[in-house]
Amino acid sequence: MVAVHLWGHLxxxxxxxxxxxxxxxxxxLNSGCTKDPVLAQCxxxxxxxxxxxxxxxxxxxxxxEDNRVADYLSHWHLSATYRDYLINNHLELKAExxxxxxxxxxxxx
Length: 109
Description:
Blueprint: H1 2-7, E1 15-20, H2 23-31, H3 37-53, E2 56-61, H4 68-74, H5 80-88
Parallel strand pairs: 1-2
């Protein structure tokens, strides 16, 4: 949802593949079905923003092992082990300060 808010306008007319190591999220994104009310709200927000920006998206499952960098980035705050792995592997990281509104639901659907 945040990626769509940040970069969706750049994807107009494109077909986007979203790689995710969470099979349940991949299923929800591709099927459009969930019983979880928060996930349903996120899904509606993604659809609304996708329609506004006029692009298509499809989720593809990727194992955690194949998604190691993103997996470690998402755990950065939990342990120095994750930070050390990323820093020691000479990855060029740049901090981005995001406006809190990229996490807001704008569609209110």
